[in-house]
Amino acid sequence: MKKIHLFIIKSFLGPFIATFFIATFLLLMQFLWKWIDDLVGKGLEINEISELLFFASVRFVPLSLPISMLLASVMTFGALGEKSELVAMKSAGMSLRKIMNPLIVFVIFISIGSFLFSNYVMPIANLKSGSLLYSIQKQKPALNIKAGVFYNGIEGYSIKVEEKSDDGQTLKNIIIYNHTSRNGNDNIIIAKSGSMRLTKDEQFLEFKLFDGYSYLQEKEKRGKRKNPHRTTKFKEDLIFFDLSAFDFKRTSAALYKGHYAMLNNQQLSNAIDSLENKLSKREKTISENIFSNYNFKVLDRNTIKDTTPPDSSIIKMARIYDYALNKLRSIKSVVNTSKNDLEYQQYIIRKHNIEWHRKVALAIACIVLFLVGAPLGTIIKKGGFGMPVMASVFFFVFYHVINIIGEKAAKETTLSVIEGMWLANFVFLPIGILLIYKASKEITFFDTNRYTKLFSKLLKKT
Q1: Rounded to a whole number, what is the distance in angstroms from the first to the last CA of the chain?
Q2: Which conformational region is residue 180 in: left (phi greater than 0), alpha (psi within -120 to 50 degrees), or beta?
Q3: Contact assessment for residue 110 and residue 69, using Cβ atoms and an 8 Å cutoff
Q4: What 3-state DSSP class applies to 243?
Q5: By mean pLDDT, which of 116-125, 200-209, 242-251, 423-432 is the weakest?
Q6: Residue 215, SS3?
Q7: Angle at 271 between CA 425 and CA 401, to 5 degrees
Q8: What DSSP string runs through 40-55?
Q9: Which of 7, 44, 149, 220 is most buried, judged by most C-beta within 10 A?
Q10: What distance in Å separates the CA atoms of residue 267 and residue 273, rounded to the nearest whole number?
Q11: Average of pLDDT values for 56-79?
Q12: Residue 154 region, left (φ>0) first, then alpha (ψ -120 to 50), else beta?
């Protein structure tokens, strides 16, 4: 390999790695912002949080690669243009296409790697993070009894303490309402002081109470209007609260294995074939059912049993109309139900197709956005995180918006799945080709000096 090719690849690798990790980090922050309410106060351990963040980061890799590809290509070629290194390469007889050749090969390998990652690693990451998130959502908030506030985290109990020492165990002025009988405040315990601690197996919370009273309202007896109360004074009492509801239990991954996001493309293709066969059989069954049970024919009046006198023709016609109306209502109900069922099955098939195309489209997006970013950098001729980042963000937001519109249109059948999922790539590929043509002809779109001079003239006039 020529030294110039190695130089170009080395110049590209630094910005690419840096922007890749930055993009992944920003997407991870967006994920945390979305799920922060479900994560806070759940008493999760560090390893559980780390595992969740790791799998979430893995899920963002296929999306981070196109972003970093666009940013890195703009920054690399912008820096080469700013330092006049592009001019030197062109003066040595290298065209822009030849300068881009080693990076095009590199980007193709990245694109293939992106597809393989999406196809084989992403389903596992989606499965792990999905089951983990579901378990966290279902978990109750962690035990956190605060002074002066009623704590209702333990089912069937309300606990309030006036003071809580810094060690988190010594308590004063304790009130415990026992609602396990589901008969109101019929069992109350009040103590001047006490302490709380977890048992060794962490399955129970132990309350040791001192100098208190226990008030119990007994069940009403026949013949007595008032319910008797029983008061018990104690010097020391011991209460255990079951904490089994706070256990962190991972949801079985089997619940998610059939989901389209947990399948690779081969599995998606098999699932689509099975769903389409199922849909075809369902359509045939519905058609046969309707024609066999609701086959309308021109009815003769004599086919309707009638016990009315012969001269009551109006009543006989009314019964025929009622019969026809009931038949129509029945078939309308059956058709609406069948229609909803078929539409839902078609929607599930579309979701599987969308997921299949998403993996391939995101991989090809790496190549497409590189073809946009490289000539854009040569036109801008600015390196660093200034103008290149602004231009890259603009183009990627534009790409992302088109991609969202295409996916939504595919889900709503406004466009076919292929048209919707590939819409952004179809739009940006001509833009990349146009930019390469303009850059090879050295046509400048973003001449910052020109706009600076124009702005200065306007300021002088004012």
Answers
A1: 57
A2: alpha
A3: yes
A4: coil
A5: 242-251
A6: strand
A7: 25
A8: TTS---HHHHHHHHHH
A9: 44
A10: 10
A11: 89
A12: beta
The mean predicted confidence, pLDDT, of the chain is 80
Confidence check: pLDDT of 126 > 90: no
What average pLDDT does this structure show over 423-430?
Answer: 93
Other Cβ atoms within 10 Å of 182 Cβ, number:
7
Q: How is residue 180 written in tokens?
A: 């396990």
List, in sequence order, the alpha helices (H) in 40-95. 46-82, 85-91
Q: Pull the structure tokens for residue 31.
A: 């994920």
- Identify the burial level of 435 via C-beta atoms within 10 angstroms of its C-beta, where 0-12 means exposed, 13-18 middle and 19 or more buried: buried
CA-nearest of 278, 324, 281 to 301 is 324
Helices and strands, counts by H and E, the chain: 11, 5
The amino acid sitting at 378 is T
State the pairing for strand pair 229-242/157-164: unpaired
Residue 127: pLDDT over 70 = yes
3-state secondary structure of 238: strand
Tracing tokens 């109306």 back to the chain, one arrives at 325
As given in the structure block, the two tokens for residue 235 are 């010097």
Within 13 Å, how many C-alpha atoms sit on residue 233's CB side? 1
One-letter amino acid for residue 159 of the chain: I
Question: Does 298 have pLDDT greater than 60?
Answer: no
* More confident position, 81 or 277: 277
What is the per-residue pLDDT across 29-38, written as a single tens digit (0 to 9) for each?
Answer: 888 887 776 6
Q: How would you list the strands of the sheet with 229-242, edge to edge? A: 157-164, 170-178, 187-198, 204-217, 229-242
Cα dihedral sign, 71-77-78-83? positive
Which residues lie below 8 Å from residue 268, measured CB to CB, with a gap of 6+? 260, 352, 353, 355, 356
* Residues recorded for the chain: 462
CA 26 vs CA 14, 30, 31, 60, 63: distances in Å = 19, 6, 9, 10, 11
Q: Is 26:389 a contact under the CB 8 Å cutoff?
A: no
- Whole-number pLDDT of residue 380: 80
- Tokens 């889900």 map to which residue? 411
Burial label for 158, CB within 10 Å (0-12, 13-18, 19+), is: middle
